[in-house]
């Protein structure tokens, strides 16, 4: 691990000022991913700025939305009564991630910005375009069971590891950001779906964040039919494993059995949380049932591309979508 200085910030402006005065600062939440990356020297900040004491809690607004401070711990968000009752897919997604110990440490802001678990990214002896631009990608011909089937590029086939972000993508959450100087003019709000990038030819650039821009909160808009929602994660072992495929879904069915609306997002399949807009479109107005669910899954996965070790994930993703939608349909019967 390289030498670094450690600072604590009392508020977002102070954190940003500190970051602007350093050559390569990093904001530190729970540290459950960043510290691992520092140990492997993949990340080499010269300053860590502890942002775990920044103000911010879980606030229920009058319109039914939730505003969640970036320093809120994963465990606290999953357990919050309003989340459990109105956004059950979010509670289930968070509880599907990591271990209880890690969820107790990890912050919401850090969860959003955690980096891929591609093994070649963590191995300094491997070729990795994400770690070193132009170095190549050993995963393409290597062990790629956990890699992307949607939105990948010749430069990178990594996946985003967060479960929580898949639920937030389905809920169309917004990310509150504070920028490189003080003042309201430097605050902005970005849809979570627009925060993470697909790899293209620059997999080393993973988000639309500006230098030293800080996530201060997430906002979850109201969505009445999210009371009928869930998250299912398919993985190689029952706990403490990343998703092969995961599905976050909410379903709104009218009195005639027709799909009035649906929200679907996939995890473990792409460089970013993957909102399944084609599947949602295919579902609207259709009779809720295995045929329309399968047709929606086919529509979403039509552009999927599999590699030697991960091509099974295309059919797995389709079946998981159908199973989750069948489960949600059954809840209303
Ligand atoms: Fe690096 Fe991406 Fe290739 Fe993994 S998939 S080795 S992160 S370039």
- At CATH level 3, the topology of the domain at 230-331 is Enolase-like, domain 1
**Termini gap:** 56 Å
- Sheet-strand content, in percent, reads 15-25%
Shape: globular
CATH architecture descriptor text of the domain at 230-331:
2-Layer Sandwich
Give start-end ranges of low-pLDDT stretches.
none
Topology:
Elements: E1 5-8, H1 12-20, E2 25-28, H2 34-39, E3 47-50, E4 58-60, E5 66-69, H3 74-79, H4 81-86, H5 88-95, H6 100-105, H7 108-112, H8 119-122, H9 164-170, E6 174-178, E7 187-191, H10 192-195, E8 214-220, E9 229-234, E10 245-253, E11 259-267, E12 274-275, H11 277-283, H12 290-301, H13 312-331
Parallel strand pairs: 1-3, 2-3
Antiparallel strand pairs: 4-5, 5-8, 6-7, 6-8, 9-10, 10-11, 11-12
The chain binds iron/sulfur cluster.
Residues 116, 118, 120-121, 128-130, 137-139, 156-158, 203 line the site of iron/sulfur cluster.
Verbal overview:
The protein is α+β, with helices and mostly antiparallel strands. Among the domains are: 1-49, Uridine Diphospho-n-acetylenolpyruvylglucosamine Reductase, domain 2; 230-331, CO dehydrogenase flavoprotein, C-terminal domain (Enolase-like, domain 1, 2-Layer Sandwich), CATH 3.30.390. Helices cover 30% and strands 19% of the residues. It has 13 helices and 12 strands. It has helices at 12-20, 34-39, 74-79, 81-86, 88-95, 100-105, 108-112, 119-122, 164-170, 192-195, 277-283, 290-301, 312-331; strands at 5-8, 25-28, 47-50, 58-60, 66-69, 174-178, 187-191, 214-220, 229-234, 245-253, 259-267, 274-275. It has a 5-stranded antiparallel β-sheet with strand order 4-5-8-6-7. Helix 12 (290-301) runs antiparallel to helix 13. The termini are far apart. The relative contact order is 0.13. The chain binds iron/sulfur cluster. Iron/sulfur cluster binds next to helix 8.
């Amino acid at each position: 691990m390289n030498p670094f200085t450690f600072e604590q910030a009392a508020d977002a402006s102070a954190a940003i000022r500190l970051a602007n005065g350093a050559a390569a600062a990093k904001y530190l939440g729970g540290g459950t991913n960043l510290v691992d990356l520092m140990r492997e020297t993949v990340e080499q900040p010269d300053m860590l700025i502890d942002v775990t004491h920044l103000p911010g809690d879980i606030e229920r607004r009058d319109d039914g939305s939730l505003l969640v401070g970036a320093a809120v711990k994963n465990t606290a968000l999953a357990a919050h009564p309003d989340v459990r009752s109105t956004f059950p897919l979010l509670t289930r997604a968070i509880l599907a991630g990591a271990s209880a110990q890690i969820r107790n440490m990890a912050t919401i802001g850090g969860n959003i910005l955690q980096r891929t678990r591609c093994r070649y990214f963590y191995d300094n002896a491997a070729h990795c375009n994400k770690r070193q631009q132009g170095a190549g990608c050993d995963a393409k011909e290597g062990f790629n069971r956990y890699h992307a089937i949607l939105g990948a590029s010749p430069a990178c086939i990594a996946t985003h590891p967060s479960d929580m972000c898949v639920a937030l993508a389905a809920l169309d959450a917004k990310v509150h950001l504070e920028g490189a100087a003080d003042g309201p003019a430097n605050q902005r709000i970005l849809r979570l779906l627009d925060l993470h990038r697909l790899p293209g030819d620059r997999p080393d650039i993973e988000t639309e964040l500006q230098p030293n821009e800080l996530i201060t909160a997430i906002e979850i808009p109201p969505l009445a039919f999210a009371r009928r929602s869930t998250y299912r994660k398919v993985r190689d072992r029952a706990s403490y494993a990343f998703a092969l495929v995961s599905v976050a879904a909410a379903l709104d069915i009218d009195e005639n059995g027709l799909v009035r609306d649906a929200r679907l997002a996939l995890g473990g399949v792409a460089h970013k949380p993957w909102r399944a807009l084609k599947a949602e479109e295919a579902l609207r107005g259709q009779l809720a049932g295995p045929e329309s669910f399968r047709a929606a899954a086919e529509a979403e996965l039509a552009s999927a591309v599999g590699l030697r070790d991960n091509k099974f994930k295309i059919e797995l993703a389709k079946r998981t979508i159908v199973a989750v939608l069948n489960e949600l349909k059954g809840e209303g019967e």
